[in-house]
Amino acid sequence: MRTLILAPRGRDGELTAQLLATHDVVTQLCGSGEALIAAISEGAGCAIVTEEAIDQLLQRALAKVLGDQPPWSDFPLIVLASVQAAHHLQLMASALGNVTVIERPISPQTLITAVRAALRGRSRQYEARTAIQQRDQFLAMLGHELRTPLGAIVLATELARSGVDRVQLGDRLELIARQSHLLARLVDDLLDVARVTTGKIRLRRDSVDVDSTIRACIAAHAEQARARDIQITYAAQFKGAIDADTARIEQVINNLLSNAIKYSPNGRSIRVSAGVSGDLCEIRVRDHGIGIAQEMQSRVFDLFAQVDGSLARSDGGMGIGLTLVDRLVRLHGGSVAVESAGLGHGSEFTVRVPIGAPTAHTVVSIDSARNAERLRVALVEDNEDLRVLTANLLEALGCAVEAAPDGPDGIDMIVQSKPDLAFVDIGLPTLDGFEVARQVRAQLGDSLLLVAVTGFGRDQDRERARAAGFDNFVTKPLGIDSVRDLLDRARKTRTRVTNHG
Ligand code: ADP
User: What is the pTM (predicted TM-score) of this model?
Assistant: First the structure.
């Protein structure tokens, strides 16, 4: 960052430049007011101007160039003035903005301190500009990323409803499901990255079977890989368990796998392996894709970092996947590293997590006779479409379902019919889900499984839900698998309640 100097009289300018040079400040002497204005417009750290240089013309030109600054910029100007002129210059200074007037005779130390402060402030402004640019780029990317699957869903739905669609309804639904899951994953990743960067994700540690977790992740990518003629091989050299959060470890492996596929040309292979090094479990994902240039390797884990950030990329992304991987692995006390011999030479990502002390599993035996009975499930949800859809899903899974659209009706319904399980939306109007849970617990005790359903997955929401009496907490959209899990859990609760009650 250059410090501009405009001092038309005598050797003032040169002496100032010499003084600053001994303190490692880079300077540029400007020969005239126009030269100073041009240099400010090009971008500089700050400017030092002597009183004699400030005529009306320069004042007007400064007012214009400083008035036209972008919102992040507040260019620092240091004016050197005699005691007599200082008062008049102070008035001008307050009109121009970020101006410091230093009275003559000037002590070198005062000048250096003032220049240093100005440059420090200016570099903060440049940082803010970079952050704003990154945010804008990210928002453009986000709009693009969300619009693509949304567009596909809207179009597929309209075609299916039009009556002129030549494609089977089942195929259309398949596409809608695929794109909806993609959308849900994008939104989840976004929320997660926000939570993890503010330190709000807490791990739910359990004993995680590395082998089956990796196999499940590979299976989840099988279709995507097949479509691109990519073969995924897996070398299992570690079959033990680690003390970790299953969902988060899956998230890590899934992100690495989907990148490996995304950044590989058709027909290449991907190798996944799990091994042990000391007390660390090492999971590697090696691809033979486009590779990563040396200078980018340290940056790929940065938030929103992308090697090619242009929107024209067909198989987009938001540059948050690897940030999430890095933060989640670090939360586990581990690390992630990338190696690539450069562009065109493929990449290898290595995740290392402490094996830790495996947690004991508790086995709950289930009374199969009682489980054959239909589960009775209550649903409190104010969004009508979601209420009907969730009720349909629960019915399709063999439950007897009743539903209410708001808190008061929900409480009456649950207290009267005493279901095995109740799904309660948190964001209900008038009486929210927390209050519903409190009142239901007060009247029915522990006889049912209460599940909070919400669009927010923040840890403080989970804690509030638990305090209000909920047993479980799920985020929207509800997936078939998570509903199945909860139904299983409700059956177990019913078994326990009947056995002991
Ligand atoms: P994105 O959503 O862009 O994929 P990520 O955070 O997952 O975001 O990755 C950041 C960047 O790192 C990507 O844009 C890509 O340029 C690069 N990258 C990630 N994984 C690979 C890989 N396996 N091969 C080559 N480049 C990769």
Answer: 0.55
